[in-house]
Amino acid sequence: MSIDDPISGNSPQPLRRADMPTDPLEQFQKWFDEICQSPQHEPTAMILSTASADARPTARSVLLKGFDAGGFVFFTNYESVKARQIAENPQVALTFPWFALRRQVNLTGRAEKISTAESLKYFLTRPLESRLGAWASRQSSVLTSRQVLEKKFAEIKRKFADGEMPLPTFWGGYRVTPQTIEFWQRGENRLHDRFLYTRQPDNTWQIDRLAP
N or C: which end of the chain has fewer CB within 10 A? Predict the structure, then answer.
């Protein structure tokens, strides 16, 4: 049984080493702006891969909520599987599958919790229903039925109906500080372009072209 290549159409212009900036954040920003203007659904979606202390991996989609020189930020429940694994092993990987532009960005680095103040600032910008959901769901815990979750949501909604909703102590953000960032772009005849940025001890970046 064979599986045809699901991506059709012309590939982008090949990437050249001379065109790659010395700072990978500049390249990421360029591609990020382009994917946000493309027809791709959920351009901020990324695959977060984590592993426990005994090297058991898991992966799931989360949303990128910001990035800068300090790293890439996402938010989650601190009692979830991903959070428990990060506590055991903070080395993670992020993958941005930007199919609409036939590109992918792969990143490895260390995840650390952001400050409570930063988490609160973002939490207050979320829609009311999302804030209620954060309070109502003990992420990754076993549910006997959906009705249990809906009942808890209604209970939380009544609880905070007449007052401000504080930040849950079990919810907040992580920042992933990258050690490597790889930019992959589809090429004709499977001659894809891959450039790997590796952080050096002095915080400069080594850039290598990789074979596809």
Answer: N
